[in-house]
Amino acid sequence: MTLLSLILSFFPAIVMGMTAASFLWICLSPGILGVLALLFSLYGFPVLVYRIHDYFYPVKEGISYLKGPDYSPWWGGHQIQAIYITFPAIESVLRLIPGAFSLWLRLWGAKIGRGIYWMPSLELADRALIEVGDRTIVGHRVGIYSHVIKPKHNNLMLYVKSVKIGNDVFVGSGTHFGPGVTIADGAYLPIATHLYPNTKVTPRNHSTD
User: Fold this and answer.
1) Are the C-beta atoms of 46 and 104 separated by less than 8 Å?
2) Phi and psi at residue 73, in whole multiples of 5°?
3) Cα 70 from chain centre
4) 20-36: string of b/e by CB count within 10 Å (b at 16+)?
5) Mean pLDDT across the stretch 181-200?
6) Residue 208 has what pLDDT?
7) What pLDDT does residue 206 have?
8) Between residues 13 and 207, which one has the greater pLDDT?
9) In this prediction, what percent of the chain has a pLDDT beyond 90?
């Protein structure tokens, strides 16, 4: 583990500390500044750090390894996003406000269209590595994972590739996406569809190719 990896492993704890301090500020001295500090801790600071990190250490698609002397940009980005995986309610609130969650993902660097309906229960592992077209519906308990990790030769092999979902797609509840999945415009995914890495789905037969 590199020094930067070690530092970023403490990032979730830093965010929690900032949030707790902001909450205490509100309790001791209620006011708009305390509320703004709380919102910045939960929503502004992680995005800002991620975009700076991505500028200097962009995540590259393809195969890499997590063990060794080289820094893994994916690992650093994952630590920055870990707070939302641990406490999904932080993001779920945004999905209750029309357009707010799509804007949130764009801030992370995702390519998100218009008129998308997101159910409140959703798990995203890599916020910047997804593309979603216009008027798509994303159902309950959907998981989108733009990476996969597997042991290989006493190391951990990481495969990263963006997930791409087209326009007018219906994603049924409980569907899970692996890295590199591509969904064509107008496709329908039945409930609990599991899409393995690099699967392509067409609307013609509503099945995987």
Assistant:
1) no
2) -60, -35
3) 23
4) eebeebeeeeeeeebee
5) 96
6) 47
7) 54
8) 13
9) 94
Confirm if 114 and 98 have CB atoms less than 8 A apart. Answer: no
Residue 204: band (very low, low, confident or very high) from pLDDT cuts 50, 70, 90: low
Q: Which residues contact 130 (CB under 8 A, 6 or more apart)?
A: 105, 110, 111, 112, 124, 144, 146, 162, 163, 164, 165
Cα–Cα separations (whole angstroms), residue 74 to 17, 38, 77, 78, 193 = 24, 27, 5, 6, 26
Q: Which amino acid is at 85?
A: I
Give me the DSSP letters along 83-105: HHHH-THHHHTGGGSTTHHHHHH
Work out the average pLDDT over 60-89.
95
Name, in order, each residue with C-beta under 8 angstroms of 80's C-beta and a sequence gap of 6 or more.
8, 11, 46, 49, 50, 53
Helix (H, G, I), strand (E, B) or coil at 49: helix
Tell me the pTM: 0.93
Q: How far apart are CA 170 and CA 188, in angstroms?
A: 5
Mean residue pLDDT of the chain comes to 95
Q: Residue 126: pLDDT above 60?
A: yes
Rounded to 10°, the helix 45-56/100-108 angle is 30
Do 129 and 162 form a contact (C-beta atoms < 8 A)? yes
The proportion of the chain whose per-residue pLDDT surpasses 70, expressed as a percent, equals 97
Structure tokens at 191: 């409930």
Q: Mapped to the 3 state alphabet, what secondary structure does 159-191 carry?
A: EECCEEECCCCEECCCCEECCCCEECCCCEECC
How many whole angstroms separate alpha carbon 152 and alpha carbon 158? 10
Pair 107, 47: CB distance under 8 Å: yes
